[in-house]
Amino acid sequence: MEKSLKSISINNGLVLGLILSVITVLIYAVNLDLFTEWWLGILLFLLAVGYSTFSAIQVKRKSGGYLTFKEAFSSYFITIAIGTAISSIVGIVIFTFVDPDAAKYLNEQILLLTKQTMERFGAPQDVIQEALVEAEKKDNFSLVAQLQAYVWRILLYGVIGVIVALIVKKNNPNEE
Length: 176
Fold this sequence. Notes:
By secondary structure, this protein is an all-alpha fold.
C-alpha cells in the first residue's frame, strides 16, 4: 500500500478513535446507564464499520478508482484497529483509573439486566441463580476484560473487513 494511501487510513483511524472516544465520554458524563443499552452497542458497531468502509472507499478514489483486495482490507483494518484502540484506551482510563465505582455500578446493572432477561424468557430460578453467581465473578470493566473485548472486536471487525474488501476492491485491468 502506497505511503499516502496508508496515511489516509491512519488519519481516518485517528478520527474514528476521536469520534468513538467523544461518544464514550459524553455517555459517561450524561447517563451511565446508556452503556447497558443493546442498541448503543449496535450503533457504535455500525459507526465503526461504516467509517472504516468509507476509509477504504476514500483510498480507492485516491488511487484512481482501483484497489487490490489487500489494499482495500488494509485501509479498512488500519482505520478500525486504530479507532477502536483509541476508544478502548479511553474506556480503560475511565473505568480502571478515573472512576472504578462507575465500573462497579455498570457490572451491577448488567447483572440486573441478565436476571430480568432470563426471567422474561422463562428460565428456571435455579438456572438464573447459577448464571448470576457466575456473572458476579466477572468484572466486565477490568483491564484484562477490556483488552479481551478489544481483541474479540478486532477479530469480528476483521471478518467484516474481508467482506468489505471483496466489495470495495477493483483490480486495474491494465495491471493484469
